[in-house]
Amino acid sequence: MTDIFDSLKKTWIKGMEAVSSAASNLANNTKQKVNEINLDNRRREILSDFGLIAYELWQKGMELPKELNDLMVELSQVDEALNLLRIKPFLETTSAEDNHPTPEDEMPLLVEEEPAVQERPAETEEENQ
Q: What distance in Å separates the CA atoms of residue 55 and residue 68, rounded to the nearest whole number?
């Protein structure tokens, strides 16, 4: 009878060790995933800061390689368009009161507009025959 209890005790201990090992592995995997997410977030912050610093340096007149310079010019145009869009409601209210033109004509176009499609006149029954 003691052999059965010893056997059950050993089986129960091995089961608890297996559960403990699985829980430990799960905790280690979770910790590793959290560390990976933290590093990935920090990488994004650094890249964002890098871009902001490069843009500020470009605005101050620092020479950048052509590829970066082209991106900075485009970014500057986007900033100008955003600023115009943001102040447009305020300008419209003051221009309506003062009869001044709105700055829509001055706003740079970032997307080329497609040419208008000319509609064909509807065919009459005489032309179909």
A: 9
